[in-house]
Amino acid sequence: MLNVSTQELAAPSPVDVDQAEAALVEHYPRLVRIAYLVLPPGLGRNRRVLTAHAVVQRSLPRRRGAGEDGGMPGQRRPEDAVDPGYAYVRARVLRRALEAGRPLRRKAWPRRAQLPPLLPQVWGLRLFPRAGGAEELALDQRLSGLSGEGRAACVLRGLERQGDAEARRVLAAAGVADPGAALAEADTVDAAHALLESPEFDPCSLQARPTDLMRRRQHGRAALVALAAAVVCGALLGMPGDGWGPDGAAAPAYARNPVAEAALDPGNLRRVAPAAWERSARTDFSVWPARGGLTGDAGLLRRALAVWARPGPAVQVSATPGTPPGPPMGPPQLLFAGEVDQARVVLFHDGLRAVRYAEPTDGTEGAALDFARTDGADPASSGALVVGRTHANVRYLTAPWVRKVSARDLLVPSGSARPVGRDAHGVTDPLLSPVAPSRCRAWDAMEVSDGATTRTLTDLGELTPVRLTAGAPSEPADLAAAGPEARAEWARTACLLPMARAKGVRSVNSWRFAEQRLPDAAGAAAWLCTRADTWRGTGGTVLAQFQAPSAKAGAVVAKAEDSPACGAREPRVLAGALWQAPGGHWYMLAAGSDRVVSVAASGGAKGGVEDGRLLAVPVPGKPGEQVELTGRLEDGSAITALR
Questions:
Q1: Are 462 and 320 in contact (CB under 8 A)?
Q2: Residue 467: which of 505, 507, 500 has the closest Cα?
Q3: Are 92 and 85 in contact (CB under 8 A)?
Q4: Given pLDDT bands bounded at 50, 70 and 90, which one contains residue 523?
Q5: Which residues on adjacent β-strands are paired with residue 447?
Q6: Is-contact 509 484, C-beta < 8 A?
Q7: Exposed e or buried b for every residue in 271-298, given b needs 16+ CB within 10 A?
Q8: Are 337 and 397 in contact (CB under 8 A)?
Q9: Whole-model pTM?
Q10: Contacts of 125 by beta carbon, 8 Å cutoff, 6+ apart
Q11: 388 pLDDT more than 80
């Protein structure tokens, strides 16, 4: 349980490894630029570029639940202007960039960041950013005269546009011993935002030149001799016995496997007729037709299938939890192939997963492959897929039965929906993605209508949008049809949705299970249980909220992972919170769902009600001791409060 008051009801925003990884992938160019600017120019531009990439790629924690730098942050600070995942990864990047810039000492064991990076490695080329103008060169010279801590302070001020108070906190989190001195040192350099954003300091937009060609030729001859010797030794070792390896009856590699070759042949892709969904007994992804302007581009489709089966090391691969990222079991269904926001995009469906392949329109470098689980999809959960995503915008490919698309700001419950345009293939105009870094001043959700039912969907950073509902777990209603009270409750719940990011969530339901009159005539408060269910069935998240009448956002008083509470299987819940009345008195409040018939409190506050599900017990003095809440259900069984 959480101490809350009418003056401040803050909601925690947990950060896990998946959310940190999502922030790293989404903001990778900016994080590499930060590392490049903080690293000392004396490394040389080639090693500085590679070290910057290595620093960012090693910035994730090694295990779930905690990081190396004091643990992963448990909640967003009020002054944070970015999402907690990005803030956490940025702090680790700064720490490692500062470590990489420190000189090696004889008696001290070197840190990993101080050694040349193992990955990434580039052979035969020297890489460096594009040259800037005189102003960028002068700024680089001035930055080289600062310490690493001073350069980090300049980056936070100029590139991240942070004030001194926030920059001081971030520097301290990155391990800077004296943030004040670093800020004072940064005062001597005028690092304008426009200059720090220039190509001179962009280690992701590079130029290449060859290394020493004569020396490389000598090394190449030696490598050929070693390779020939290894081949001869391997042949001698492999000839006796039952063959080359222990695979026995295993099928040959993909290149020689007829079944695998058939799955990777664009000519074998399943293409559904445009009107098949009108006659089909099912209404899900299996009846989506093939759409897009590049459905006849055999080269693009062949590349997409090949990368799906054997993604190379340069491909950015992501998969929602519980989604196998392996190759297709047979020829998949083609949903879309076309150009979206300067990228060529292909969407597939194989009955279990939706798969998105994207490559730049000017080449195949920087290709991405995304997997999302979609088994058991129904009309409510198969209305759209994410087809394109930029830093702050998202585009959807809508289902063929969708007749109307609109957008609505969840934080403005009385606002009207805005129409959203679509092209001839069903791709929407860009919508503001709520997962982009922000202070949660707006949360755009998409409403799709088939003419009879309107469903509310929102983006949580994955391939499949999340359906939003309201009501009892036994029969939740789509938010678009739930009424003004449900929209008002969601307006104070929407900013809690990042807790379900990168978890493979299918739907989120918000259920008002109780309403309670507050002591001291302070009005009425609502008790809500918000449940996020996943496509895989396990790993759901449950939040108990206390929404005071004057609060702009609900306060999370309890959270449970992988719990059946507030779901169709267990539609019951008991929750409590310490609440301070406007007059200064403290109370232990508790509420249960309609199946709870009695509630009792013990520990720091004692009291109970034998015939009811609402409790308000005065707390003597200032709250300190833990309060335990228990209840009894209609069948006589006990229930404990959600924690």
A1: yes
A2: 507
A3: no
A4: very high
A5: 406, 456
A6: no
A7: ebeeeebeeeeebbbbbbbbbbebbebe
A8: no
A9: 0.63
A10: 208, 209, 210, 211
A11: yes
